[in-house]
Amino acid sequence: xxxxxxxxxxxxxxxxxxxxxxxxxxxxxxxxxxxxxxxxxxxxxxxxxxxxxxxxxxxxxxxxxxxxxxxxxxxxxxxxxxxxxxxxxxxxxxxxxxxxxxxxxxxxxxxxxxxxxxxxxxxxxxxxxxxxxxxxxxxxxxxxxxxxxxxxxxxxxxxxxxxxxxxxxxxxxxxxxxxxxxxxxxxxxxxxxxxxxxxxxxxxxxxxxxxxxxxxxxxxxxxxxxxxxxxxxxxxxxxxxxxxxxxxxxxxxxxxxx
Length: 258
Ligand SMILES: [Zn+2]
Fold this sequence. Notes:
Layout: H1 6-20, E1 27-30, E2 44-51, E3 54-60, E4 66-72, E5 78-83, E6 95-101, E7 104-109, E8 113-117, H2 121-124, H3 138-146, H4 153-156, H5 168-177, H6 191-205, E9 241-245, E10 248-252
Antiparallel strand pairs: 1-6, 2-3, 3-4, 4-8, 5-7, 6-7, 9-10
Helix pairs in contact: 3-6, 5-6
Bound molecules: zinc ion.
């Protein structure tokens, strides 16, 4: 299973945006209790965008007031687009929301968060600079990380309050590329270089169907270390080690990442 990272959500926003932006919602069906009575039919989708791992579908109600459908994929979530009447790829009970626009329907499945917000900025006010945002600010990301010198870099990189977009796969890949152990104190790391690597990887992958950090787009060769427990390091041949950091799997080469 591929855990959604910032680039996943960015690509998803693009895909959904192609279909929904400018469309008028003919019917909306929110299947979570809190929003079950919400009806955005007649609203026009003005934008679909990502901020870190958060997805926003901005809608202008018929009255002209803006509202935004905020979702977070967490571990299992996704959005799919279908022509009305075709079979869904996931079971109906997994659908949290269905947005109808003419003969198209966008279905949000297994979403970790789903809410309808008058002011969407409140949902992401806690986030650090977005690695894929128009307003990406590397200096702010570096200073946010630097403010936590004693936290292991592998933990700090996942803290979306410091910078937004890095998930479990990228933290392993970034640490390998920078030749540092994820347990290294953040204060002992070349932070501008780490932040730059995060941005480079996410940007390169924002529109790719398969995540790739090695530059080799061949099945099974796309990643340096993630998911490669006990397999030989692509650089030095040492067996890759899997361990838990902050209760999530991390993969390292003990030789390349002392
Ligand atoms: Zn190695």
